[in-house]
Structures are given as C-alpha cells and as structure tokens.
What does this fold into?
Amino acid sequence: MVIETLLISLGVFIAAFLFAPLGLGGGMIFVPLLHYGLGWDINGALFAVSLSLTAVVSWGSGLAHRKENHYDDEALRLGLRGALPGALLGVAIVVLIGEKIDLVFKISSIIMISWAIYKTAMKMRNEPDKAVQEKQPNASEVQPIPLQIGTGIGGILSSVLAVGAGVIYVPVMRTFAHLEPRKAIGTSLHFMMIVVPVAVVAHVLTLPSQMYSKLADEFILILIFMALTLLGSRSGAKYGMKYLSEEQLMKIFLGVIIVVALKYLTDLLGF
It folds into this structure.
C-alpha cells in the first residue's frame, strides 16, 4: 500500500504540473487516481477531495497567470453569473442522484470531454488570421448570453464531475469571448479560483455523516496531496508560460483530453 500511495502522490504532482499551464484543474486525473489507485468510492467525499486539489491547482497557476496579465476581467465578471449558480445546482444534482452517481459520472465525463475535443479542434482549424481580426473589430465582441450559458454548464459539471471544468471554460472563452489562448487559459483558472471553493464547501455541507469519518481518516494524506498539487501547479504554470507557445498549449490541451476521454470510455464499456 505504501508503494501505491507513493505512485499516486507522484501522479498527483505530475497532473498538477501538466494541467496548470493548460487552464485545467486536474480533476479529470485526480478522480481516476483516487478511485482506481486508492480504491475510493465515487461519492461526495471523493468529489470534495478532488475539488480541493483542483482549487489548489487553480490558485497556484491562476496567480502566476494573473501576474503576467493573462486573464480578462470582463469575461470573468460576465461568466461568473453563470458559473456560480451552476456550481450550486451541480451539488444539488449529486445529492439527488445519490448511489447512481458512478454511472452518471462516467457518462457525463465522456459527453463533456467529447464536446471540448470538438470545440477545441474546430477552433484550432478555423483560427482567423490576426490581420483579418483587426479589420473586423466586431468579431472580438463578447457574447454575454452564450458566455453565461457556457460557464453555467461548466459550473454544473465542475460540481457533478469534481473537475475544474477548464475543458468547458477554455473553449467557451475562446468561442464567445474571443480570447487568445493564454488569456482564455488564465481566465479559466480565475473561474476555478472562485467557483471550485464554493463547490467544495457546498459538497462538504451536504455529505452524509459517515463520509466525514472517511475524510478524517485520510486527512494527513489529503494535506500531502494538496502540497504536491501546489508545487506542481506553480512550477508547471511557470514552465508553460516560459517555454510553450500558444499553439503548443492548445495541442497539448487537445491531446490530454483525448487520452482522458478514451480512459473513461474503456472503463464504461468494461474493457
């Protein structure tokens, strides 16, 4: 069990390092690591832990992006009007689903990631030339309603799937706020810095009493994981901003979510 825990700890650090520069919180990896690696059941307690790790990643990377001004205040302000209510609604959905959350979780994950793959691939394929954008200033106007609907869906999925929902926020920022990749990633992290802690508190407040003992038993391990995610996210964000181009970021983003989608699909099909 010691070796398995060390390997999972390494996986947590690597996930934070890789996901931080992509505008993702790492929940898509944290949940499988805890579920398959440590044998934790998919329930509200696991969601609270995964989201806590995601919150650490978002703050560690988000502050680094904020320092470099890689975020957009207007898109953040408008998007939070959808994301925050969505996160609370997501927690209510988890409570109502109850024991069926495992199946719903896996199916929803595949749908969410498939959408993100499609939107990201299409955006990369149809990326307009900068000169054309300068000639058409209206193309850069923020679309408030689609933006808020998109971030609302992201907030719901953040609570239901225990993820940061960067796979939703980044394409939404790119499509409806017309942000360039680094600002879309930074703004996605800013959403998580606010929305994910709200989701964590809501999950903890709605946990059945027996799940509190599970969290208490694993408290030291959870703190270790949180320290590793902070270290990984800070170093990953700095590395990504210094050495990775915007095109490389989007390609890595697309590659990571394709791998995660395949993992959930094979698990759902019982392979």
